[in-house]
Amino acid sequence: MDLGYFFSDLWISRWAILHGLGLTIVISVLAILLGTLLGIVVGLCLSYGHWSLRWLVRIYTDFLRGTPVFVLILACFYILSVIGIQLTPFQAGVFALTLFCSSHVGEILRGALQALPRGQIEAAKAIGLTFRQAFIYVLLPQALRQILPTWVNTAVEMVKASTLLSIIGVVELLLATQQIIARDYLSLQFYFFAGFLYFLLNFAIEKLGRLAEKKVIYHV
Amino acid sequence: MTAQPLLVIDDLHKKFQALEILKGVSLSVAKGEVVSIIGSSGSGKTTLLRCVNLLEDYHRGSIRIDGTEVGYQGTGEQRRRLRESEIARHRAMTGMAFQQFNLFPHMTALQNVTLGLIKVKGLAKEEAIGIGRKWLDRVGLLERSGHYPGQLSGGQQQRVAIARAIAMSPKLMLFDEVTSALDPELVNEVLNVIRDLAKDGMTMLLVTHEMRFAYELSDRIVFMQQGAIAEDGPPAELFHRPKSERLAEFLKSSKF
Lengths: 220, 256
Fold this sequence. Notes:
The complex is a heterodimer of chains A (220) and B (256). Chain A has helices at residues 3-12, 14-48, 51-65, 69-82, 89-115, 118-126, 131-161, 173-184, 187-216. With 220 residues, chain A is mostly helical. In chain A, helix 2 runs antiparallel to helix 7 (131-161) and helix 5 crosses helix 7 (131-161). Chain A is elongated. Chain A has a single domain, classed as MetI-like fold, CATH 1.10.3720.10. Chain A has nine helices and no strands. By secondary structure, chain B is an alpha/beta fold. Chain B is 36% helix and 26% strand. Chain B has nine helices and twelve strands. Chain B has helices at 45-52, 84-91, 109-119, 125-138, 154-166, 184-199, 211-217, 235-240, 245-253; strands spanning 5-16, 19-30, 34-38, 60-65, 68-69, 72-73, 80-81, 94-97, 172-176, 203-207, 220-225, 228-233. In chain B, the strands form three sheets. In chain B, strands 8-9-10-3-11-12 form a six-stranded mixed β-sheet, sandwiched between helices. Chain B has a four-stranded antiparallel β-sheet with strand order 2-1-4-5, with helices on one face. Chain B starts with a strand and ends with a helix. The A-B interface holds A 117, 119-120, 122-131, 133, 137-138, 141-142, 145, 216, 218-220 and B 53-55, 84-85, 88-89, 91-92, 94-96, 98, 100-106, 115-116, 119-120, 148-151, 161, 164-165, 168.
């Protein structure tokens, strides 16, 4: 194996790889952020919604969680265009990942909210907070702390799932790598390198998660 | 007591499915009066307290605090529970301390006390902190204001919880078995805080198993039995000359 050739080609392809890596990061961050925000709404509905709303949202989460992300991405790209919503591959992909993320965050948040002692909402009400205020200041902050470790896992899963956007032509890190390999046939080296970059990304997320856990922990 | 009643409970009925928890309870508490509710578990005393704070709904009867009917509107067919925001406003007239303290674990003692002041009363942060520190000082925990509930003993947590409720300057304080979850050696520090508030003229309704404390502190004792008030009178009368066999038995079993 000629590593010298690999390194010189890596240098030539540096911008393509960086661009792919950047896109992977943008896709992941968007999906995680939007998915978490939507997931908070989903968790709120599942925990405290009217039964009809709970039922609807339950179908939403079960459906999304039971569908392979791969299928979800294809569906968002092709099916939406059939019904007249024309999204770019990037938009469709981020949309699919956001939905997927929201169903997972919603579900784990529901668990955390329901595990909070009843006394918390009662004490919040007793000092005159409305339900909305109690949720924002008392229930949600506690539930978010509870789900942090699981949420970090979900974030890592989102980074990995972002590779699937390559099938609808989003030139993220994986597709960028494949395009380089198509040119120079150094498949082993470049796949390994891409894998290494994914590892670094997820390692950073895990480390940040640990750091955040230490920051927000309170003594129980 | 000649003052007009601050709290008037009239013919309160509450059911959990088929089980009738409160069977027509009527009780009034004058301004500045300290009333303790005693009775065996399942007699409905905690439920009564929770109804006053609107944590429970009730299907008949009314509760008036300082002349305002709380929680419901209309009578008969028209009767309906008020909207969440109106309930919250009514609830602010009362303060409540719970058996399990229920402090917010992600907030410091001071933040626990100031949350309501800032979000419900709309005070500026500095002003809220001033009031919060004053009340933490009053319950003897000023130097613990930066501690989280998990770093405090049970007795300290309950004192913070009382400060949190009282800082909202309620017209009426409700205490729901506030010492029941405490180790025996921590009970007194909490009772002292309540004694201190009573001296200030705070109107209080307590549910308690501390008979000695109820006897010494209360202006009136109410004995509840199977969802109704069985006896109501000054402590000396109830404790020394119980009218009913049941109360005599209850007092004997609670080792007064």
